[in-house]
Design a protein that fits this description.
374 residues, Muramoyl-pentapeptide Carboxypeptidase, domain 1, 9-stranded mixed β-sheet, single chain, 3 domains, L,D-transpeptidase catalytic domain-like, alpha+beta, two-stranded antiparallel sheet
Length: 374
Amino acid sequence: MLVRKAVAAAALTLSVLLAVVGCATEATPRLPPAVTAPEPAAPTEDDDVPTLPPEPTLPPEPAPPAEAPAPATPEAPAHRYASGDTGDGVRELQHRLHQLAWFEPPITDTFGTGTQAAVEGFQAKRGLLVTGAVDDATWEVLLDMTREPTHDELHNVLRRGPALLSSGDNGDDVRDLQARLRQIAWFSAGINGKYGPQTTESVRGFQAKRGFPATGEVDQRTLDKLHDMTRQPTADELNNIFPTNDSGEMRLDERCLTGRAVCISKKARKLAWVVDGKVQMQMDVRFGSQHEPTREGTFSVQWKSRDHVSSLYDSPMPFALFFSGGQAVHYSADFAARGYTGASHGCVNVRDRDAVARLFEASRVGDKVIVYSD
């Protein structure tokens, strides 16, 4: 009995287990396999994680105001001709300057120091910008004042002109010729109004020195040049009567009574070096002709040149004290040799070399120079 109960119980248990298993496999819906959840990742910008608002940014600082552009430097005027240039244009420039007595031939095709000095002088005289180079303004003024040079003039071709005076002529014109030649030491014989061998040789020498055709006859070019370099002869000169040096005492102009002054009296034909009203030394002097007069007025020593040579006349000017442009006090060998027979080209000639050398050493740039007529 007990055994049957045990078997029965075991069978019941087995059926129950089979029923449970059958529900699980057939009647009960199958659950999806469990999914293992991943660990949460760190939040990113795309996650719904609250983020702090961006920090406010300040507006950009205003840029400093732009500096005003510096005023443009005016450009130097364009140059037509300047130092170092060459060519026919330079020839034309030189001859036009020569027409105004700023350039001394021969004419060349090179813009050198002589041309530059001539341009500077011309510009200063006309109130133009002094550069030594020829800009449009300088060129236009030069064109207005001159004529077009000929081919011969541009190439230094000098042809003899018709004779105005020649061997065998007589009269007052010959006297004037001889006296003028004597003023510049080309004629040493007596003035007689007869165009003879001595006059011919004097004219020939004068012409050769200037680069003219040396014919011994006076053409217009020769006569013009002679007149440019001399003054109208006096009646005494035309008749071989020459003045002595006894011209009286020198009167000091009141402008000479203070400071340091080179005082020059045309009437007395003397120069005095005066310091604080006291005369330190005196010397004889000679002046320019009526065509090239020595300027009068109050000036000053602008610059000094111990061994100066004139670029215009190619003549020595030792111990030169320049006081008015090209006019200077200087020693003159011609004055020392011929006295008052000749004349300067506007300078104050001194014939005592030792005296003018002492004046050169004693004077200074800036000292007064007083030139007066009485």
